[in-house]
User: What shape does this take?
Amino acid sequence: MLNLLRYKEQADYGDPTDAAPCSEREAYFQRYLPAFNKIASSEGVEGIKVFYVGALAVCLVAPSDEK
Assistant: This one.
């Protein structure tokens, strides 16, 4: 698997929002994924599961100064 996600320290929604400030990692796991699953379920898509979430081990395609 190649993970192409990059997270900023502060989530940027591009326009004013009522959402409380958080990191992009928090926004992805606590806001986007639940909303995605809700929409997928409403369209009849079932059985979506997260099999593994882990820490970064090696950067293959990122600049050396980035995590």
Summary: The chain has one domain: 20-67. The mean pLDDT is 80. Residues 20-67 form one domain.
